[in-house]
Each structure stands twice: as C-alpha cells, then as structure tokens.
Amino acid sequence: MSEPVAIAQVLVSTRPGGGSQHVLAVAQGLRARGWRPIVAGPPGGAMLERFRAAGVETVALRADRLSPLTVVRLVRLIRRHRVRLVHSHGKGAGFHGRLAARLAGVPAVHTLHGLHYERYAPLVRAVYLVLERRLSACTHVVINVSRAQEAEGLALGLFTPGQSRVIRNGVDVAGLGARALDRWDARVALGLDQSVLMVGTAARFDEVKRLDLLLRAAGAAPAPGFGVVFIGDGPEAPRLRRLTRDLGLEPRVTFAGEIPGAASLFAAFDVFAAPSRKEGLPLAVLEAMALGLPVVASDIAAHREVLGEASGGLTEGTPEAFAAGLTAVLCDPELRRRLAAENRTRARSEFDVHGMLDALEGVYRETLGL
Fold it and tell me: 173-350: which CATH topology?
C-alpha cells in the first residue's frame, strides 16, 4: 500500500475495559503494519489518552448515544479523512458506524464483543434483535470473537454464515510481560498487604460480570479466607459496595477503581477470578493467562474456549462452588503453578495478538479487494 489506507475504528466506550483495550491493540498493530487507524469514540474516557500516546489518531464521537447527529458527524469524518472502511465495536457504535458507512458508500465490518440481550425487557430485546438483523444487511463482514458466539448469532439469525468470520481476541504477550510490575510493587501500588492471599479481577461493573458471586464466595470460604481486589467501575458499583458491607467483608475487599493498563498490576493476585454469567471472549482473562496467573472461572462457553475444556480452573457458578474452587487453588501451591504454566502456554500458542492481526488484515484486504 503506497498510501496508508484509513480505517475508522468506532467504539462505544473509551473507558478502561476489554473493548477499548482490544481496539487499542488493534490500532497499534494496524499502524505498525502500515494502515491508518482512526479511532472515533465518546469523549472523556481515560483510554483516549492512551490512544493518543500510542500515536493513534482520535476523534471525539458520541457513539454511545443513539443520535442522527452522530451518524452525520461520522459521515463527515469518513469523507474528510478519506476513510475506506468502517470497523465498529459494540452496539451503539455498530448502529452509527454501519449507517454512516452505507451513507458514505464505504464497506462496514462489525465486531460483536459478546451477545448480551437476555436480561433486556421483552420489547427491548425484540427491538434489539430485529435491529441487529437489519444492520447485518449493510455489513460486509461480522466478526465473532469466539466459536460459541458465532453459533449463537447464527441461531438468532443475526448474520449469515457467509458474513461471519471468527477472529478470537489476542493479547500482546511479550508487551504485557515487559510492562508488568513484580508482585511486591504491584501490591504496594494497590495498597495491599504483602502477606495475605489475594484473589483479583478486572472488569466492567456490569450485572453480566456477576461480581457479586465473587463477594459471596469470599463470604462462604473457610477461615481465614482471602482478600479480594476489584479493578474497574460501572453501574453495579453501589450494589457491590453495599453487599461488601452487608457480608462484613470491608476489611478484606479493595475497590481499586478504573486503571488503564490494569494488567500491569495482576502480579499482585495469587489467583485471577472470572465469575461472569456470559462472555464473548474475555480479554482480562487472556491477559491474566499470558502473565502466568492461575484462573478460576465460571464454567461457561467462553471460558471453556479460552482455558480449555479440561481446565482445573473451571467451576460451577454458585457461591459455594466458587469458594471451593478458589480455596482449592489458593491452598495448593503446586496446583497454582500447574494452572499458571498451562495458561501461559495456551495464551502464547493460541491467543497472541499477531495471529489476531493477521486474520483482521485478511478481512480488510478481502473486503477492500486489495
């Protein structure tokens, strides 16, 4: 490519989290490979500065709010920057991005980062599914981040088999290791006791992440128990703090807030916990695996795909079962070492960012006829 091809990456949130972290990895990788990624997302999020620090062009765009004005602004961006393809991430971004691409006469690619609709009210759920099916008509390729998600989306009629490509999320294994603090410094940064066994997680505080299960598991674990660290924020924060007080866990629980590049602190954890009810393909779990942490996770399709069907870290999604799973791993140093080694090997062999970028470039070249 003599002149870098401009690709608009439209995202629904610029707050720290799996979606924005994924787009950062994509934008950095594409830029290094000679493309011109332009990230368009809501203003005010801490990840915007990380995009800019990485040399990625950014444009403030309220893709998180349904508005015809957002579509108009995105069409202007496409034309002004000679964007040749729009790649959207997330529901709001997918709505605005695909409509704008159609109006501007450029192809659209959309990534579904999980299908979360079950807890919508019946009418809202029906509207969402109909809208997603209609939008697929103006989408050249729909990227699914896991095989399980692709199967579910096909069953729901959200896209056709010919449209779908499975590109599993990847992480920069070498880069994560280079940026990671050691255990002592990570615990100092988080204000944690150096001598206490710690279970940590990093997630958006959303009901689907089921972070209350981790608190209830901590309450159900046998004495002396373990400390719990939550990195993140979101609408569930007030409820989680109330539950922490109600369970008498305040001395053992740390709410660290949103931290861009949170994986650099994962060495503070003895175990990484992932209690989600449902996932697309969880980026924080991949980061923990790449950094050599044992992971205890709810036994759901996405976690089986990431950890492996036979992983000793999979457990039932009840407080008692989760407490038993965490306690078993925490109390057995040899089991922790074995799970950590398995996870590191699996992350490096199956979920490295370079494979993800190769597949994504293939989609772009196919769509653009390059």
Answer: Rossmann fold (3.40.50)
